[in-house]
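May I ask for a sample protein chain and its fold as tokens?
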Amino acid sequence: MNWLNSEAFTLFGQRIIWSDMVGNILGLITLALGWRRSLWTWPVQFLSGLVLFAAFYGHLTGSAGKQAVVMAVALYGWWQWQGTRDRAGDGHITPRFATWRERAAMLAAAAVGTVAVALFFQAYPSLSWDPWPDAYIFVGTVVAMYAQAKGMVEFWIAWLLVDVVGVPLNFTNGYAFSGFVYVIYGALVLWGMRDWWLRSRRRPQPVLEGAPA
């Protein structure tokens, strides 16, 4: 798998490596499929994680470990979407807003998880170049994927918050292609959030038994 870490081309003076390009293109496809609420979003997400895991395994243990977690959450998302009975007329899942309790739980998990992972990265410097932003992006990604697996509109907001840090971090670390992809992510997230938001507001309201139609 050494070819994954070789240079594909140069863009604006930045070296673009194959794993960075392939993994992030698959990530864009994943986001587009998520917008369409397609079950295929999860296999493609898993494949993206697998490509990056293969590229990092053996020399960037921390990055490989993070991709293993992403693949595990992708399997969880596949299981959730495949088993859900709450589907729209097109056969895809019906988006919904999270409850306040779910929002509080995700915010708490994101905060505690970021601190815990950052401290872990600091204890083992070989696992990350930038412990705090790296932990923020990693934990934020997992939280966003979890919310997506549950069909929550808030998963788009989580992705936006990840992008805010992901764009400058990738450019700073020399991953120019990832930086450009994160900019495109931002545009897709805004469109996808609008679509899911509108669909969630069109959810049919339950009618009480005996009430007039």
Q: What stands out?
A: Confidence is low (pLDDT under 50) at residues 204-213. The two ends are 62 Å apart (CA to CA).
